[in-house]
Amino acid sequence: MVFEHEIPKGSRLYFGKTAKAKRNLENRVCEILDSKGFEEIITPNFSYSQHQAIANDRKLIKFSDEENEQVSLRADSTLDVVRIITKRLGRATSHKKWFYVQPVFSYPSTEDYQIGCEWIDHDNIVDLVNITGTILEDLEINPVLQLSNINIPKLISKEFDIDIDYFKNGEIAKLFEIDDAWLNQLIKVKDIKDLEKAIKISPEVIKAELEKLLAVARSVEYKNLVVAPLYHGSLKYYDDVYFRVIQDNFVISRGGKYSSDGISSLGFALYTDSLLKILED
């Protein structure tokens, strides 16, 4: 029996102090993004292309439109923002920097609020990481910013016949069992100095991607930085250097470089509910 005052599991309810804290957080971040030249966009809750962003489409809440085409509730904002700007609004605006404050939805009834931005047709990931750092400093928190390159685990898996699931699932013990000196060194990398040492003994086939990661790490202004060359994230579209921000077992943010319809772009999302919990503590 469902009572009329109940809300579905995974849904969000904000009231009183929590609603005010949420509004204040969103306003602070939006002011920073506005000062950096980003303009706001609010995209439809419904989408035809969510399967291209989400690795596990079982997480999508799906139904059919009047033409029997599959529609999903928005589970990720990135690719929809880029396609709407470049294809639907292409003649109406040439602006490349956009931010949004809106929820995403996943099966069966989970909603999560995000503050995100997309920098279309721009490929210097350092610029985006430094904006993220500015936001964290403004909020007066000092979480770990983990920097990775998705091409490194992909190349290692392909060239050395190592199961990619070891990287996707974070099965470090399995990687140690392979017992390669260069791989063991990569597993231990945590900072710039570690990465410099690992590059010296790494196979030529992955050195270019490791050096790309090193160049970004050296240019990042944020101090609480961890380098994780073997991390493999869950989002489908990041295809180069990317990052996540973590504190107290909460993932606060994810961002990185991706391509959509041949256009290289950057984007990140800040997870509102995780940030509210940390700021409350």
3D structure, described in words:
This is ATP phosphoribosyltransferase HisG(S)Z, hetero-octameric short form, regulatory subunit. One of its GO terms (biological process) is histidyl-tRNA aminoacylation. Keywords: Amino-acid biosynthesis, Glycosyltransferase, Histidine biosynthesis, Transferase. Its EC number is 2.4.2.17. GO terms for molecular function: ATP phosphoribosyltransferase activity; histidine-tRNA ligase activity. It is a single chain. The chain is α+β, with helices and mostly antiparallel strands. The chain has 2 domains: 1-141 and 254-281, BirA Bifunctional Protein, domain 2 (2-Layer Sandwich), CATH 3.30.930; 151-232, no CATH class. It contains 10 helices and 11 strands. It has helices at 16-35, 78-88, 125-138, 151-160, 164-168, 172-178, 181-187, 192-201, 204-219, 272-280, and strands at residues 39-40, 46-47, 62-64, 70-73, 97-106, 110-119, 144-149, 225-227, 238-247, 250-260, 263-271. Strands 1-5-6-11-10-9-7-8 form an 8-stranded mixed β-sheet, with helices on both faces. A hairpin with a 2-residue loop joins strand 10 and strand 11. Helix 1 crosses helix 3 (125-138), helix 4 (151-160) packs antiparallel against helix 9 (204-219) and helix 8 packs antiparallel against helix 9. It starts with 15 loop residues before the first helix and ends with a helix.
| Strand composition percent | 15-25%
The total tally of domains equals 2
**In total, how many beta strands?**
11
**Which regions have little confidence, pLDDT < 50, spanning 5+ residues?**
none
**Helix content bin:** 25-40%
> Any idea of the CATH class of the largest domain?
Alpha Beta
User: How would you sum up the major sheet?
Assistant: 8 strands, mixed
CATH architecture type of the largest domain: 2-Layer Sandwich
Question: Rough shape?
Answer: globular
Strand arrangement within the widest β-sheet reads: 1-5-6-11-10-9-7-8
GO molecular function: ATP phosphoribosyltransferase activity; histidine-tRNA ligase activity
EC number: 2.4.2.17
Domain Class II Histidinyl-tRNA synthetase (HisRS)-like catalytic core: 18-274
Keywords: Amino-acid biosynthesis, Glycosyltransferase, Histidine biosynthesis, Transferase
